[in-house]
Specification:
single chain, about 375 residues, 3-stranded antiparallel β-sheet, 15 helices, 12 strands, about 15% strand
Length: about 375
């Protein structure tokens, strides 16, 4: 089998673990910290799911993983694991950072200034022109523009930035979406950087786009919303950026245009009003390196934090269909945080728990 990462001898086991149904980014981290290696975590999955009242998904076999690695290599790409020195540091700061991403192209310098530009798919011609010009001016100042390769504002931003861009897509790295952006996607993969969290061959679905949005927000020092309706994926990206402690900026628009209402709402709620590249660059001055912690990944097993049946019942009773913060579960249950996390892990592997942004969780009806 071709190596997913020659520096990681257990790369195949890691891929099997993250591709196992029910194992998301948060669960992956907890499993590695609890059991030390991906191989040990894979062996523990059935018992953990049984304790949660269900059955764990079946990990893909080695042949399936080998096919994925070979497919990405044939495209000229590679896997990038979260503990790789090349993994973007700002993205690794997220609690739910992807344990592995697939990439084509060249990673920007570690100290690059990265700006996300997002907005409406059905954007006005004026907004697309503004986004294209803003991206061009940011690139001319040495910044990198990241967006989601969607129609409208995303496409304009990528085109304006030229080779100084990163495209994050919702499906597999070999799937062009929307189809009319196939040539643009290939150009970005060749001349800039294309990233995907989903395995190759994955057609983008509605549920994949919020996951893509968190990567866009996580990669960037700040997010600029150019045009967006009050309920849109662009506002999700802005919220995720705010939750990650990044700058949120918005371009004001006419109150008569529904497509500008989301931006105006963001400004009213505290986002920075920006009108040009100079305004944006002023907001994303380089971080003090002392404020950005280096992600620490240890593969030493942690002390067991198993729960008894009473603790499982107590935590399950506090969960409902409405997402609740894990910190609130810990406070109300009075149970040790490590035990609460273990119960949530068991429930998720059993298919009974859903994770949400902001460290929240809900029971699956």
């Amino acid at each position: 089998m071709a190596d997913a990462d020659p520096a990681l001898p257990d790369a195949a086991d890691r891929l099997r673990l993250i591709r196992t149904p029910g194992v998301g980014p948060v669960t992956y981290r907890q499993l590695i910290r609890r059991f030390g290696t991906a191989a040990a975590a894979l062996r523990a999955l059935p018992d953990l799911a049984r304790r949660g009242g269900g059955r764990s998904g079946d990990p893909p076999d080695l042949r399936t993983v080998a096919h994925e690695v070979e497919r990405i290599a044939a495209l000229g790409g590679r896997h990038l694991f979260i503990d790789s020195p090349d993994y973007p540091r700002l993205l690794a700061e997220l609690d739910d950072a992807p344990p592995v991403i697939t990439m084509r192209g060249a990673l920007p310098a570690a100290d690059a200034r990265i700006v996300a530009i997002v907005g409406a798919r059905n954007a006005s011609a004026a907004a697309c022109r503004f986004a294209r010009g803003l991206a061009h001016d940011l690139a001319a100042e040495g910044a990198i523009v990241v967006s989601g390769l969607a129609r409208g504002i995303d496409t304009a931003a990528h085109m304006g930035a030229g080779a100084a861009t990163i495209a994050v897509i919702a499906g597999g790295i070999d799937i062009a979406y929307p189809p009319e952006n196939a040539a643009l996607q290939e150009r970005i993969a060749t001349d800039a950087l294309l990233l995907a969290e989903m395995p190759p061959g994955t057609e983008p679905r509605a549920r994949h786009f919020p996951y893509r949005n968190r990567i866009i927000a996580g990669l960037a020092h700040g997010t600029v919303v150019v045009e967006a309706a009050p309920k849109s994926g662009s506002l999700i990206t802005a919220r995720l950026a705010n939750e990650a402690g990044r700058e949120v900026m918005a371009v004001p628009g006419s109150p008569l245009d529904p497509r500008a209402q989301g931006c105006n709402l963001l400004i009213r709620e505290g986002a920075t009003l920006v009108q040009n590249a100079a305004d944006v660059l002023e907001q994303i001055r380089p971080f003090d390196p002392r404020l950005v912690r280096s992600p620490v990944w240890t593969f030493e097993p942690q002390p067991p934090a198993d729960a008894d049946d009473a603790a499982r019942r107590s935590i399950a009773d506090l969960l409902g269909p409405v997402p609740v913060a894990v910190d609130e579960l810990i406070r109300q249950s009075g149970i040790a945080p490590a035990v609460v996390q273990m119960v949530l892990l068991e429930l998720e592997l059993a298919g009974r728990l859903e994770r949400h942004a902001g460290g929240r969780a809900s029971i699956v009806a």
